[in-house]
Each structure stands twice: as structure tokens, then as C-alpha cells.
Specification:
two-stranded antiparallel ribbon, single chain, 381 residues, alpha/beta, five-stranded mixed beta sheet, elongated, 3 domains, Helix Hairpins
């Protein structure tokens, strides 16, 4: 068996090939980030005429084309978090020399010596799910930015409107797109405002009563800005719905018991599955907790031992999803709600208590996925 480490870069990739004793088999192999370079890599490995495992750092979009090529040629591929490679490199030497060729060798050594390498085996379907869930997360963040600007505009143009009809609804968007100031709403009159779907006569009357005395200030520039912001929010609504549909279609082929946990819906399940990938690569819940970045930092020296804040390493997307799921579970699951109450009664701050709930949820998810059984409130007691 050969163990191959690839140091990925924008224009070239450095390759290290080791045997099962850690001896270098192939030296000074560098291939370009091109079809010719990929073919050279494949032909070089074929000439060695041995089974091989390949590892590289999960460094973002520069790895995608190479990963796809390796999958097409049926190689077993593993991807490591760069932080793990960095920590492993420190364990090998205290010297601070760093070259691409040495990095490739470190990755190969990590693959060779890692008893838990299956945890990092690359799954193309899971990669697709991760791409979609992270894309959806970015879309929602972009929409949130526009909603912040939208609130700012409303506070300037018509600050009283929020208490009358709220801000984020289809009829609020339509109202402000058509009549983006108190003055224009008054000029439009009752009958025209009544054409807006789901805007009730009672709310229209409240608007027309308050609008003439509003403290808001408007201008053509403000009104133009407001209309553009609403258009962007609605545009992101469409993009988000499309992305969610794509995730639903992919999730339909993945059987999971996570949504049987009271409070966890399909969206959070998708993120959790995308980040965990394969539960059988984790030996115990503590490993999954560490991967989610929900373990406390520990310092021990002699007779001194201290625990600090969460290390927040691993997957920030998994940590976010677990924390959101923990909050949802405390709302809908009697057992999780009771557990949260217990931690609060012990004097813990809400955020600390939720972290304890998240750790408990990780243990539950680990058990459910390991044994492929649905959630049962009674078993949680």
C-alpha cells in the first residue's frame, strides 16, 4: 500500500509518495493544475503498480477539480483540515522550515499514521450537500445584510409603520414598493391601498390615521433606495427557496433519523449531516463534540489543571447547526426543556446552559446515527 500526500496550490501541486514504512518512493513530483498535470499524476501512480491512498488538505476551491479527477479514476481520497496538518507537523519537528514538498510529505505521513483516517474519507455526495448548505448559509447572510439596510430606511422614512403592520411580510414589501413614503400612502387613498393582497381594511385605516403626522423624512433618493433594497430582499427570497429545493432533492436520497429528534427540521438536519459526513468514523461522542468545536480548552501542568472557553475548532457550520438545534429542542422537547431548566437553576448563564444542551444533543445524535434508530423522549430520561 502506498500513501500519497498532495500539497495543493493555485498553479501546481506537489506530490509525496510513501510506502507503509514511511520511506519515500517517488521524489520531486510536481504537476501543474491542468489536464496535462492531472494526467501526469495518474500515469505516474499507475507505473508504481500498487494500491494507494491519497490525502490532501481541504483548502477550498483549489481542491475541487483535482478531487473530481481522482474520483473519476477511482482513487480513495481523504481530506484533512489544514489545522490538523499544522498540528501534526509540529509533532514531527520543532524546525520552522516550510516548503511545498515538505508539506506534501507531512500530509502523506499523517495519512500513513492516522488510525482514524476513515473519518476524513472524501464522499462526493456529502460534498455536494456541504456545498449546497454552505451556499444557502451565504445567501441568508446576504439577505440579512439587506434587511438591516431595509430597517434603517424604514426608521427614517416611516418609523411608525413597524408597529402598525410589521416590516417583513409580502404586503409590507408591496405597500412600500408602490408607495415608499407616508405622503404617497395618503395620496393613494383607502381604495388603492385595499388592492394590496392581505393588507386588511383595519390596518389601512391605521396607516392613513398615522401617516399625516409621521415624523419620518423622505426624498426621491430615499424612496429609490428603499425600492431597490426591497427588490434585493425578494431576489434573495427566490434564491433561498431554489437552494432549499435543491437540498430537499438531495436529502430525499439520504436516509437519516436526525429529524426524529423533537425540534430538528430538514434544514438543520442537512447542515449536520453535511458536516458530520460519516458517523462511523467517530469512535465516541467526545470526538464528535471536538469536531464541532464544543469542547473546553484544557491546560494542565504539574498539579495545575484549568479549563477555559470553548476552543471553537473543527467545523463552525456544525457548531452553529448544533447550537441552533439545541435551542429548538428546548422549545419543543420536554426532556431537553427540563435539562435546560436544570442548568439554569444551577446558576449557569443561558448561553452556558445552551452549550450543555448542545453537548447532550451531540450525544443523542451520535447514538441515533450509530444505531440508526429514531429518537424516543422516554429513552432520554
Amino acid at each position: 500500500m502506498l500513501y500519497i500526500g498532495i500539497d495543493v496550490a493555485k498553479n501546481k501541486h506537489d506530490i509525496a509518495v510513501l510506502n507503509d514504512k514511511g520511506k519515500t518512493i517517488l521524489t520531486s513530483l510536481t504537476v501543474s493544475n491542468s489536464r496535462a498535470g492531472f494526467d501526469l499524476l495518474h500515469q505516474s501512480l499507475k507505473q508504481l503498480n500498487q494500491d494507494c491512498l491519497i490525502a490532501l488538505e481541504d483548502t477550498g476551491h483549489y481542491t475541487f477539480n483535482l478531487l473530481n479527477f481522482l474520483h473519476e479514476h477511482h482513487y480513495q481520497v481523504y481530506t484533512y483540515n489544514p489545522l490538523l496538518i499544522k498540528e501534526f507537523a509540529k509533532s514531527l519537528s520543532l524546525r520552522k522550515t516550510k516548503t511545498d514538498k515538505k508539506d506534501a510529505r507531512v500530509i502523506a505521513l499523517k495519512l500513513l499514521s492516522d488510525p482514524n483516517r476513515e473519518q476524513f474519507k472524501h464522499d462526493k455526495r456529502q460534498e455536494e450537500l456541504k456545498i449546497l448548505t454552505r451556499h444557502l448559509n451565504r445567501l441568508k447572510k446576504k439577505q440579512t445584510d439587506w434587511k438591516v439596510q431595509y430597517t434603517k430606511c424604514i426608521d427614517i422614512i416611516f418609523p411608525e409603520l413597524d408597529k402598525l403592520i410589521g416590516k417583513h411580510s409580502d404586503y409590507a414589501y408591496e405597500l412600500l414598493s408602490r408607495y415608499p413614503s407616508p405622503e404617497k400612502m395618503v395620496q393613494a387613498g383607502f381604495d388603492n391601498l385595499l388592492d394590496i393582497k392581505r393588507l386588511s381594511a383595519h390596518k389601512i385605516k391605521d396607516i392613513l390615521d398615522i401617516a399625516p403626522s409621521s415624523i419620518g423624512t423622505s426624498s426621491l433618493a430615499r424612496e429609490f433606495e428603499l425600492r431597490e433594497i426591497i427588490e434585493n430582499i425578494q431576489h434573495y427570497n427566490r434564491l433561498i427557496k431554489t437552494a432549499e429545493t435543491q437540498i430537499d432533492e438531495l436529502m430525499a436520497d439520504i436516509k437519516s433519523v436526525i429529524t426524529t429528534v423533537t425540534g430538528i427540521g430538514n434544514r438543520l438536519e442537512a447542515v449536520i449531516l453535511a458536516e458530520i459526513r460519516n458517523i462511523h468514523t467517530f469512535d465516541n461522542p467526545a470526538q464528535l463534540q471536538a469536531f464541532a468545536g464544543l469542547e473546553p480548552a484544557i491546560y494542565q501542568s504539574g498539579q495545575m489543571e484549568m479549563t477555559g472557553k470553548m476552543v471553537k475548532r473543527g467545523s463552525p457550520h456544525l457548531r452553529w447547526a448544533i447550537l441552533q438545534a439545541a435551542k429548538a429542542c428546548t422549545r419543543y422537547s420536554p426532556q431537553f426543556r427540563q435539562f435546560l431548566s436544570l442548568k439554569l437553576e444551577q446558576g449557569k448563564h443561558y448561553n452556558v446552559a445552551i452549550t450543555h444542551v448542545a453537548k447532550k444533543l451531540i450525544r443523542v445524535i451520535f447514538y441515533l446515527l450509530k444505531h440508526d434508530i429514531p429518537f424516543d423522549e422516554k429513552r432520554l430520561r
